[in-house]
Amino acid sequence: MSPLEIGYTAVGGLVVLIYLGMPIGIAMLGVSFFGVSMIRNDVVALRMLGAVGNDSLREYLFAVVPLFVLMGLLVTVSNVGKDTFDVFQKMLRRVMAGLGIATVFANAVFASITGISIASATVFSRVAVPEMTRHGYSKKFATGVVAGSSVLGMMIPPSLLMIVYAVLAEQSVGRMFLAGVGPGLLLSVVFAVTILLLAKQRKNFVFDNADDHTEYEDFSFGELLRKAVPILSLMLIVLGGLYGGFLNPTEAGAAGAAGALVIAILRKSLPKRTLWNLMVETGQITVSVLFLILAATFFSRMLALSGVPRELASFFLDSSIGPFGFLIFYLILIVILGCLIDSISIMLIVLPIALPVAEAAGFDLIWFGVLTVVAVELGLLTPPFGLSVYTIKSAIDDPDLSVGDIFRGAFPFVLAMVVALAILIVFPPISTWLARL
User: Fold this and answer.
1) Can you give the residue ranges of the TRAP C4-dicarboxylate transport system permease DctM subunit domain (predicted)?
2) What are the Cα distances from residue 214, in Å, to 85, 132, 133?
3) How big is the CA angle at 117 (ends 273 and 366), to the nearest 5 degrees?
4) Could you tell me which of 214, 189, 184, 208 has the C-alpha nearest to residue 120?
5) Which terminus of the chain has fewer Cβ atoms in its 10 Å neighbourhood, N or C?
């Protein structure tokens, strides 16, 4: 077999192993070792594996992963999500479908201090959905809003997916974070417009009772300020330090985790056992992410050795398909994969193949990364996988609410994300202007 044939066989073997249920990290390591052994020999494969372990995980920037994960977990147990929703509820309650729009913008702010979509889905399914249904919104719409806006957790920095992409594409984590701001705001606005259009055109979809007269929980200015200060403080520490150039991403993560710990202690929401559990969960998430990055790096080197990326670049760029034909094909493939496997796994499988093609096409890799993250996040809302949907279902545990209802409620936001993705393709500066300053 030629190196090219071995490379294609390894890719096919990886797909088969994942389909059979093998953990993706182990599958990637296995096919990569097999591929290098076949192209060269076992000794080279072992040496490359050791080099990959050393080169891919010794970077200082990897400390950012546990720090942002810990910060997200701490703010989740500290009821910061509920406070964020309360603030926006107070501001937008008089707007048509105001609670839906409040959920979107509360999710956007919460995303800026967590970076994990599933955390947003869990928190707001318990905070926003009961409040929305109490005020006459349909459960289908309420859960759909939470599912749709939860994707902002992976777009608005800090974002775990942005970190993974930056590592695989060898881009600056700080620049990737900056690149997520414009698209994150765009998605928030598109979601808000979608809610307003639904409230005007499809009232039966949005409301079970459009003439709601249920009283809202009232907050004094002092109470509202008490709720807003922790959120604003964390945003100022993390985003202000990062964008102001005072902190690098790792230092911003450390400052944010320390700030979140102070908030949790002051609110007495952190018993010893809870703190231990959060530390263990942080370690588990971090190790799993770093192991996957190691496996993906080995997979990428094996593919480069086989010549598959070079062959694919030649096929797409020298044929009638062209660079943007490749881009559309790539984004559609990601959306399809999102129906079947989780977000990080998709990136680890496709990016080692797609990045060399994108680079050969002359695409800005930061812009390409933003498009990748938006397309990957679509998978959180599409059946049958739809991780955000299943997270909401498990968090609410309402026998009258089916998974199908949540998928139907989220469908308008899938369309909204497709519109936002098209806008980002047509207007790349939305993604790149801040990162290039």
Assistant:
1) 12-429
2) 18, 11, 11
3) 125
4) 184
5) C
How far, in Å, CA of 251 to CA of 260, rounded?
14
Bridge partners, residue 137, by sequence: 207
Going from N- to C-terminal start, the domains of the chain cover 3-432
Q: Which two tokens stand for residue 122?
A: 């869990």
* 3-state secondary structure at position 425: helix
Q: Which bin fits 271, alpha (ψ -120 to 50), beta or left (φ > 0)?
A: beta
Nearest alpha carbon to residue 261 among 58, 418, 78, 133:
78
238 vs 114: CA distance, rounded Å: 11
The residues, ordered by sequence, that sit 6+ positions from 416 with a Cβ below 8 Å of its Cβ are 148, 187, 190, 191, 193, 194
Tokens of 410: 């989220």
How far apart are alpha carbons 292 and 62 in whole angstroms? 13
Question: Does residue 137 sit in helix, strand or coil?
Answer: strand
| Partners of residue 207 on adjacent β-strands | 137
Indicate the pTM of the whole model. Answer: 0.82
How many CB atoms within 10 Å of residue 115? 30
* CB-based contacts of 48, cutoff 8 Å, min separation 6: 36, 298, 301, 302
Eight-state DSSP code of residue 215: P
**What gap in Å lies between CA 194 and CA 188, rounded to an integer?**
10
User: What are the structure tokens assigned to 110, written together?
Assistant: 């919460």
Q: What is the pLDDT of residues 54-91, one digit of tens each?
A: 766 666 667 777 888 888 788 778 877 777 877 887 77
Give me the residues of the chain with pLDDT under 70, please: 55-61, 115-116, 209-219, 340, 385, 435-437
Q: Is the dihedral of CA 112, 148, 346, 314 positive or negative?
A: negative
User: According to DSSP H, which parts of 202-321 are helical?
Assistant: 203-206, 221-235, 241-243, 249-266, 272-306, 308-318
What are the backbone dihedrals phi and psi of residue 58, each rounded to the nearest 5 degrees, phi first?
Answer: -85, -5
Q: Tens of pLDDT along 231-246?
A: 888 888 887 887 777 8
CB atoms within 10 A of CB 58: 8
Q: Whole-angstrom Cα distance, residue 280 to residue 362?
A: 42
Whole-angstrom Cα distance, residue 170 to residue 300? 12
Question: How far, in Å, CA of 194 to CA of 148, rounded?
Answer: 11
Structure-block tokens of residue 167: 């590592």
Q: CA–CA separation, 156 vs 242, rounded Å?
A: 13
